[in-house]
From TrEMBL:
SUPFAM superfamilies: C-terminal effector domain of the bipartite response regulators (SSF46894), HemD-like (SSF69618). This is Uroporphyrinogen-III synthase. Residues 269-361 bind DNA. The lineage of its organism: Bacteria, Bacillati, Actinomycetota, Actinomycetes, Micromonosporales. PANTHER family: BLR5956 PROTEIN (PTHR40082:SF1). It comes from Micromonospora nigra. Keywords: DNA-binding. The keyword DNA-binding applies.
Amino acid sequence: MREELAGFTIGVTADRRRDELAALLQRRGARVVLAPALRIVPLADDTELRDATRACLDRPPDILMANTGIGMRGWLEAAEGWGLAEPLRSVLGRAYVVTRGPKARGAIRAAGLHDQWSPDSESCDEVVRHLCRRGVAGQVIAMQLHGERQPECTLALEEAGATVIEVPVYRWAPPTDPAPLHRLVDLVAGRLVDAVTFTSAPAAEALLRAAGDRTETVLEALRGDVLASCVGAVTAEPLLRRGVPVAAPSRARLGALVRTIVDELPRRTTTIKAAGHLLTLRGHAAVVDGELRPLAPAPMAVLRALAQTPGRVLSRTSLLRALPRGADEHAVEMAVARLRAGLKTPRVVQTVVKRGYRLRVD
């Protein structure tokens, strides 16, 4: 089977690049659930951004911290609208420019500016450490913010003797339609997705806020059955702080994120031999002798329960507990029938009269 992610369902919490990420995952066979956790609201007409720009012109910065590509482009576009683009480029062109990652570096170079240093980790903390080692006492630092204020970074630089001009280019806001995000919360809590992708730390925080009183249930799912995959270490921090293991590439790129998922998800599958067939359990499908067999949630739940102890008989009552709420014993019989039909190998699931069902392992 050439589609490495066939049979898996993956939630995408990104907004701006959701279609690109979804296409990369779908190209590898995944079923994708789009659920933007946040949206970016530009602040081109915002008084704070204009005031910060004026402050940079009045007191040219010795250091520029360029944190995001979209932020730097937005700042320069806003300055263009105010007739301040050339004066702003002129003062920034004399600064020592630190770019937090490749997108910010690309935006700086596209503007005709030159960057001098970037952190390996793409972390603001590493930028602050570098600047403090270099020495910032008496210097002015223009810090282009990425969505939210960074009080810890600002305070550390100010304590080292710098004057920090915070430049708020955009802010995070709730999604226009919150329904997809709440639906994703339901799917994570019910362990009906195999992975959730995050491309920003605020998106991870937003998913947990949307969970409300089910936050711990969602965290437990992310600590176990549902893979949390983050584009980089900075994005992963809110989840790691809550004890969630995270899969993240060494370089913060969407392509690398997808490759990490391709590497990780198949390792989490269960493979068993039953009635002479090789079965691999994926998120919403079983691979039977190399052929993908998509299954509905109830039959898949029965298969997972039986596969935990192959050959052991599970009663209808035991299997009932594996089904969605509100099911009855008749629903177990229906789920078993649909499982046999979906697998197209009826002998794999054996009925043991008056006792229940088991996977035939002989």
